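can u pls check wat happens w/ 6-O-phosphono-beta-D-fructofuranose
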Amino acid sequence: MSYTKKDLQKTVKEMLGDRLLVIVSNREPYVHTIREGKIECSRPTGGAVTALDPVMRACGGIWVAYGSGNADKKVVDKKNHIMVPTEDPSYTLRRIWLTKEEEAGYYLGFSNRALWPLCHIAYTRPEFIGSDWDYYVSVNEKFADAVLEEVGKKQAFVWVQDYHLTLLPKMLKERRPDLIVSHFWHIPWPNSEVFRICPKEKEVLEGLLANDILGFHIRYHCENFFDTVEKTLEARIDRERYSIIHQGHETLVRAFPISVDYNTLSERSDTPEVEKAMGELIDEYSLSNLDHLIFGLDRIDYTKGILERIRGIDKFLENNPEYKGKIAFIQMGDLSRIHLQQYKDLNDEINAVVEEINWKYSTEDWEPIIMVRRHLSFTDILAFYRLAKICVVSSLHDGMNIVAKEFISSRVDEDGVLLLSKFTGAARELPDAIYINPYDVDEFADKIKEAIEMPKAERKRRMIALRAIVEDRNIYKWAGTIISEFGKLQNGHKNSHSKQETKHLQ
Ligand code: F6P
């Protein structure tokens, strides 16, 4: 029996007792926007919020995040609170507001022009701009004020998310040393040689070392973090116990590979609603004459290897002309961080390359590459997962990659092949995927062929094995493991932690 939502609720009750659970992230789990005069609520596509929303729905508590929607202010109460999700209010979303300058300096600037490329090593040069850092500091302070306001006089477990908020743990601990603060790092941590170019390396590390627990997806990122600290700060690093003591404070560093809500995704994929959507998408995108549908779903980001996969399709068709007219590659993806030049350029380049390849191969009634530009509902996404013969995840570097696990969870028919970049955290857990190196276009084309031609029995064997892994290591187990660590700290068991205890999740 896999670990369920109920098991998580039990763990939370045992470990947190009366303590308030506060999640803090830059991105909010629900965004309100005005479209055609009406307020709509939607869910952003990022991995962190997708993974954490089911946890908060199960546990309750407060989620503090930046209110980025143009109707966000209209729907909150005087305390900037709104209960979410609307159809089943389960937890409080506390929105904080940023000015355009703050968003530019803190979010687009230090977070996504500096830390994001620095940590992903996808050959996009990080830019460090002094004023970006100033905004990064002041916005982290803004988050600290909001969190402390929410906590009031209560005891709390504050669970900080991601690279936007590296200074927050220290700011919180300075004002409330009694809080238990944990941080989860959703992206890779690079090796120390890479990280040392960051002019604010020391400040970032000191911020993170105020945490009681610091989580990464995989052990390799923990090791990189240890090396970075060792070369930068005076700290005692205990690689046996996976802990760092800095200025008298201990931070436990652990690998917690994030996951998805397997059961809900499986159940929802197996509904008449999704089957109806499958039929509608076949009509909308003229897919009925195809033998094989290949698809990808990403934010349009240079770390995701979208251009590489389009080039892979091109090479595949060049090497295997007999598949012309029989396959199509569908790429879905929301635009992301479009105010940054690299993202604008990437989007333009993707459009140009798609145009070039479609021009090269298209016939009167067939184009090999379909870019889906409209917003897709969650039902549509599940329908596409179900329609695809192959799901391609070709990230140049990725902390985990949630799409890979969502695809697996949705394949209740035990069919479909996952083509997965070796450079994702997910690759460490999913050995029955077909691994690819997105930088190697010839190999990429060969792997597409291998996936297309894989016998049904082999596809089934692999998918059953993949599903068993994701079912077992689901999002509730992930959260339950971290919250158990919180609980041990709370109960003063910090020193009793052994490497053994986390081994099953590595
Ligand atoms: O996988 C999680 C994540 O990559 C975050 O690290 C990132 O913040 C998010 O998804 C998506 O980016 P954004 O919040 O900028 O839309």
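The pocket of 6-O-phosphono-beta-D-fructofuranose is lined by residues 27, 46-48, 162, 186-187, 299, 336-337 (CB under 6 Å).
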